[in-house]
Amino acid sequence: MARRPFFYGYVIVAICFFNMVLMRGILASFSVFNIAFLDTFQWSRAATASIASVNGLVYSFASPLVGWAYDRLGPRILMPLGCASIGVGLLLSGASTAWWQLCISYGLFVGLGVGCIGFVSNTALLSQWFRRRRATAMGFATMGLGVGILIVPGVQVLIERYGWRAAMVLLGATVLATLVPLNAVFQRGRPEDIGQLPDGELTGAADDAPRPGEGRREGPAPRHDWTLREAFASFPFWAIAVGHLALGIGLSLMYTHAVAHLVHVGLDDLAAASAFSIVGLARIPGTAVWGLASDRLGRDRAYGVATLVTLAGLGVLMALSTEAPAWWFVAFAVLYGVGHSGGNPTFGSTITDIFSGKDVGKILGWLEITFGIGVAFGPWFGGYAYDVAGSYQTAWIVGMAAFAMTYVSIRASMMWQRRVHSETR
Questions:
Q1: Minimum mean pLDDT among 14-18, 84-88, 144-148, 419-423: which range?
Q2: How confident is the model at residue 281 (pLDDT cuts 50, 70, 90)?
């Protein structure tokens, strides 16, 4: 019997994993840079957090361009350029002395770079390499988001010992020395480019039917080559757009203000950063589990459970106080980390299940606009809520509503897909 050839898709998953480690580590580290900026410049919390809002706006409105560039240039050109933009932006951030300079360096350069190596590119890329095991692959790749959060305490240590400027420069140099060459040398756009097929199949298209002994398997509907115009006119496009907006608000509130909230309720800076890093630790197995569950149980069924766990974590966060026992802080981080890790594999798989075809990069790019708007709104709103009320409680209530809305959008989209799927049989 001939030996099965090595499937290069596993290399693609590994590259996406490393991209997400540093991308999430950099974005999550803004939570500790946020505190350092407050101490250095004495800005209001809304003004300081708005630097992250600029980053989100750039990410948002660059996403259609990123989708277009992905379809035209491919990941081997686009993703190294994005990594270079992140690295240069961080180097410039370390030299910034004014709010507007950080808006350009961290907001513009880093935001544009994150767009190039973020959700749009990784989802479009993995959807080409995996069909039957799409959510599983995305789950393993997005484990990098959890690992990235573990960088946050290390960044806090660097800030305490060498200052936030040196920490920014070190992060930028790391991106330039690792992610740029990794993506330039090893990225490949499609399995067909190297004589392989999606999922490592030996012949024919990947089979969406369950194999013997397997349960229900979620997969793409019969393939239709969607155009951007058709996507704009469809129900799931706008349902997912609303869900993406809500998800951006919920995630950015957490990644910008969670450490500041933990400091507010009594932890010191390093203890708060360390407690938040448990979110990343919990994400590592969480993304893989939700990816497998999404493929076997259905996107909306798996994400419904994930959303309940996320809301439980936020409820614990709201109950934290100086008198709370230490295990409450751990419970918040574990529940939230496990719960919200279902978002990436579920959203990415839902979109590419429905909107297959040559325009998938463009469609992903336009959908990501609303996510970026949410990412821009969340940090500013969290800071404003604190400036007005002296606490983050209102922000967390909005966050809980946002995560609930993401589930509604996934549920509505999958109901539409199943109905269309059954009608085409």
A1: 419-423
A2: confident
Contacts of 77 (CB under 8 A, 6+ apart): none
CA–CA gap between residue 223 and residue 355 (Å, rounded): 9
| Neighbour count for residue 151 (Cβ, 10 Å) | 22
Give the global pTM.
Answer: 0.73
Distance CA 385, CA 399 (A): 12
- C-alpha Rg value of the chain to the nearest Å: 21
User: Is the separation of the CB atoms in 353 and 369 below 8 Å?
Assistant: no
**Burial zone of 67 (CB within 10 Å; 0-12 exposed, 13-18 middle, 19+ buried):** buried
Judged by phi (left if over 0) then psi (alpha if -120 to 50, else beta), residue 221 lies in: beta
CA separation, residue 358 to residues 57, 74, 228 (Å): 26, 12, 10
Closest CA to 412 of 246, 252, 290: 246
Q: How far apart are CA 250 and CA 24, in angstroms?
A: 15
CATH class label, 10-201+219-423: mainly alpha
Q: What is the 3-state secondary structure (H, E, C) of 391-412?
A: CCHHHHHHHHHHHHHHHHHHHH
- Contact (Cβ atoms closer than 8 angstroms) between residue 360 and residue 352: yes
- Please report, for the chain, the start and end positions of each structural domain, with discontinuous segments joined by +: 10-201+219-423
**What is the per-residue pLDDT across 168-178, written as a single tens digit (0 to 9) for each?**
999 999 999 99
- pLDDT at 209 > cutoff 50: no
| Closest C-alpha to 223, from 380, 39, 354 | 354
Residue 312 has a pLDDT of 96
Dist CA 287 CA 13 (whole Å): 13
